[in-house]
Amino acid sequence: MASLSDVFRIINDAQHQGVVADYAVGGAMAVLFYAEPARTYDLDVFVLLPGDKTSSLTLLTPIYEWAKQRGYRLDAEHVIIQGVPVQFLPAYNSLVEEAVRTANTLDYETIPVRVVAPEYLAALALQAGGTKRRERIAQLLDAEVINRSQLAELLSRHGLLDTWHKYWGPIEDE
């Protein structure tokens, strides 16, 4: 029976084969590396693509072709890898790009996995907006895995500090 570690191994292979230049797991699945697991339907994988200077979704064509060649089924925007819906998301702004480049390499059942750092997960969730994403921020804050001074600097640099204040008030180390 396939496991999530098999999915991570396959994503690592895609990077080694040059299908993606770099990647980082994001969204609710990334939160499980730092806090209590959240219910989620799919695995979000932010990617930097070889030679990528734009954020057009047509740039995902090589990923979809790679997946088809390996027998993975496509379902709307998902690639079904070992039964897991995986959504590859090209870095669509500087915050996502930075989140991928600075991702932590963590282990999942001995498989190295690039995972968005908690400060970036919070910033990305804030940028995306919505109740569900604010719940993810609360999970990360409750787990005490966020470096608040790094978060304040990150939010300030990406113009999100005022939005943070609207929902969460001042960051302790501001």
Give the termini distance in whole angstroms. 48 Å
Largest sheet: 5 strands, mixed
- Overall structural domain count: 2
Which regions are unreliable across 5 or more consecutive residues at pLDDT < 50?
Answer: none
C-alpha Rg (nearest Å):
16 Å
- Find the count of extended strands (DSSP E, 2+ residues): 7
Basic shape: globular
Strand percentage lies at 15-25%
Q: What structural category characterises the helix and strand content?
A: alpha+beta
The pLDDT mean sits at 91
CATH architectural group of the largest domain: 2-Layer Sandwich
CATH topology of the largest domain: Beta Polymerase, domain 2
Query: Order of helices and strands, N to C?
Result: HEHEHEEEHEEHHHH
| Helix proportion range | 40-55%
CATH class of the largest domain equals Alpha Beta
| Neighbour order of strands in the largest sheet | 1-2-5-4-3
Our count of helices gives 8
Briefly characterize the structure:
This protein has eight helices and seven strands, in the order αβαβαβββαββαααα. The chain is an alpha+beta fold.
